[in-house]
Design brief:
425 residues; Rossmann fold; Alpha-Beta Plaits; 6-stranded mixed beta sheet; 4-stranded antiparallel beta sheet
Length: 425
């Protein structure tokens, strides 16, 4: 059995209206033929500009969205037909704090989600305490989450994502809104999970220093398509991302200027009569440039070296990808992937939930699911794009349970009961 998440030919189309609510419906392709491998014991990055398809991909891997085509296999299990078994192996941490019940305490949230994953009670008590301590919420463990700050709620969401010791952890902007010390601690935890526990991690983040610190391998996508992959260093080298050398010459002469020109550097006059020489090059040219200026009789007033930027590499790749799309006339909204009309699906609408297999799905901004929750039944027709996102207070619960609102739920650590207002079920 393969111990990895394997994604092959992944595609996701959403029906959209081009001209308001009465306009014709077409298909927007958010993910387009994507292949990924997320092995155990490694942090894998998924990068791209806004709208590249990163979050849609992660939601499909988390079984929160069904793919339009392609396959996702987790340790050999199909994420659509074996979704329940897959959910026991994965968990998701997404940026923003709307992944927990606001009308429960922090401790109650962890207890509730731990029971959804069938964590034994003795282990769950120990695990709850460990995670609350890890995210710095021990003193606020018995405070209602609605009284938490945004950062505190996000820290609780991180603890929730680790409650079942997942084999695979999906991280979508996990440090968004976190203070620097907590973000640093989370990076340490993620690195330890991969290195020591053999957890497979998929990370999306706009904090590229975070990606460079954690990821051994990175995929870059644009318009849902694969652009490049490799280590951060390999991506920078492949795109010609340059180191920048800034050399201050206090007494520039014609000879030092000739040296700068020979290296292909730029020169800028400084107010004090000196000159700033700037050289961008894929190789480390600080030593040769400094030596040449010194040999030409120049006095060095300062030297600054800026390493090649992963951000520059991502921007370069995205520009190349956009140029390729423009050259073929193929865009995410038009071209061979668009369809003229899509019939209205059953149970559509902005407040409708796509449920099936006896379970409810998640809300807009509440992307949480217990291991027995299902995103859509096997007989469910494709619904409106906004039908995928239901009431922002709804959350996914266990098999045989309907979608509930957070203010309708009561959970106590020693006896979990889920009920509507005015009674229990």
């Amino acid at each position: 059995m393969t111990t990895a998440i394997e994604v092959r030919g992944l595609r996701k189309d959403f029906p959209v209206r081009d001209k308001g609510i009465l306009g014709p419906r077409t298909l927007k392709r958010a993910v387009d033929g994507l292949d990924l491998d997320i092995p155990r014991g490694r942090v894998t990055g998924l990068l791209g500009l806004n709208g590249a398809g990163k979050t849609t991909t992660i939601k499909i891997l988390a079984t929160l969205l069904r793919p339009s085509a392609g396959t996702v296999r987790v340790d050999g299990l199909d994420a659509v037909t074996d979704a329940r078994a897959v959910r026991r192996r994965i968990n998701l941490i997404a940026g923003g704090e709307r992944m927990v019940y606001t009308r429960m305490t922090g401790r109650e949230n962890l207890w509730y989600f731990g029971q959804l994953y069938d964590v034994p009670k003795a282990e769950l008590r120990r695990r709850t305490g460990e995670l609350l301590d890890l995210v710095g919420l021990t003193d606020a463990a018995d405070t209602m989450v609605e009284r938490y700050s945004r950062g505190m709620a996000q820290r609780l969401a991180i603890a929730r994502g680790l409650i079942n010791r997942p084999d695979y952890l999906l991280l979508d902007e996990p440090t968004l809104g976190l203070d620097a010390p907590i973000a640093r601690d989370l990076r340490r935890v993620v690195a330890d999970l991969a290195a020591h526990d053999g957890t497979g991690v998929l990370l999306t983040s706009h904090y590229l220093a975070e990606v460079e610190e954690l990821c051994g391998h990175v995929y870059v996508i644009s318009a849902g398509r694969h652009l490049a992959q490799g280590s951060p260093a390999e991506l920078k080298a492949a795109t010609g991302s340059h180191r920048t050398v800034r050399l201050t010459v206090t007494d520039p002469t014609e000879r030092t200027r000739a040296v700068a020109d020979a290296f292909g550097a730029t020169r800028e006059a400084l107010p004090d009569g000196g000159e700033l020489i700037t050289l961008r090059h894929p190789d480390d040219m600080a030593g040769p440039l400094t030596a040449a200026v010194f040999e030409a009789g120049g006095s060095i007033g300062g030297l600054e070296i800026a390493e090649a930027s992963l951000e520059d590499a991502i921007m370069t790749l995205a520009e190349r990808g956009a140029a390729g799309l423009a050259a073929t006339g193929d865009t995410p909204l038009a071209g061979p992937h668009s369809a003229p009309t899509v019939p209205r699906a059953a149970t559509a609408g902005s407040r409708a939930a796509t449920a099936g297999a006896g379970a409810a799905i998640v809300g807009a901004g509440v992307v949480i699911a217990g291991p027995d929750a299902a995103t859509a039944g096997p007989d469910k027709a494709t619904a409106d794009m906004d039908a995928v996102a239901v009431d922002s207070e709804a959350v996914a619960v266990g098999s045989g349970t309907a979608a509930v609102r957070s203010d309708d739920v009561t959970v106590r650590p020693d006896d979990v009961t889920v009920g509507a207002k005015g009674g229990t079920r």
